[in-house]
Amino acid sequence: MVIAIIAVLVALLLPAVQQAREAARRSACKNNLKQIGLALHNYHDTYNSLPLGVRNDQGNRWGMSWFVGILPYVDQAPLYNQLNPSAAHSGYIGNGAVANQKTISVLACPSSPMDPINKDTGRGWTQRPHYIGISGATNGDGFTNPTNSNQFNTNNCCSATPQGIRSVNGVLVPSKGLTFATIQDGTSNTIAVGECSAFFYDAAGNSPRAVNSNHGWMMGTNSGSQRPGNRTFNLTTIRYAPNTTNDSLPGTGNNDGENNGIYSAHTGGVQILLADGSVRFLSENISMLTLRRLATRNDGQPVGAF
Length: 306
Hints:
Shape: globular
Low-confidence stretches: none
Strand order of the largest sheet: 7-3-6-8-9
Order of helices and strands: HHHHEEEEEEEEEH
Largest sheet: 5 strands, mixed
Number of strands: 9
Strand content: 5-15%
Number of helices: 5
Distance between the termini: 50 Å
Number of domains: 1
């Protein structure tokens, strides 16, 4: 009888313990995003612009992402000083050796089921970040990008589903460092960074796989232009609802889906960093019109409640 009572009590307490642990992990994830937000603001104060979302290197090879620029502002100045920001990303000699097996805690959501270091770039094993820059949103649901949007289809590579669509009306965009003044819709109404911290699945919901920034946190793009066909790592264009993890949809999948979007291991939604540095928990049931407007810096339309 005593054993039975204990078993019942354990069964009652276990969900509460699990909820408390997840609350702590979600709080730590929120703190990561706050640190990233502060780093973006400090970068802007120093250089009068935000970092380039992605760029190529001087040899027109795969260059660096925005994560590299904020390293000195997330207590990673020694790591930054070992890198050659003008050279290629971690898949090449030099930078690859520096990044090998290196874990940056601010880039890892504690709730994520994925191993943060799980990609062999050819020069070592590099951390795949659980956060991603927002470069804009696709048209749809009553939303239309501003007329100056450089939006186009991209020819996704390898294991990504074709027909990805890229927008550059977000906060972190390819080959250009924006200023806060260009965020015309207001920094408190525009997403800068979101989560990408859960597995994706096939159309039947099977075969979990990691699709977050296939080549690691350094990876950028291989062209200085924004022409179709060039993949951009560590950035995403919003096309689907939060926590959409079906990699058979157009523009999704590994290596690298332009429209993988924002998704997390947190129940019911995903955490986002707004351009003003604040962090919000975004419901996965948010209106897609509202989400598209949140992902766009200059559409001139009211966002509404979120």
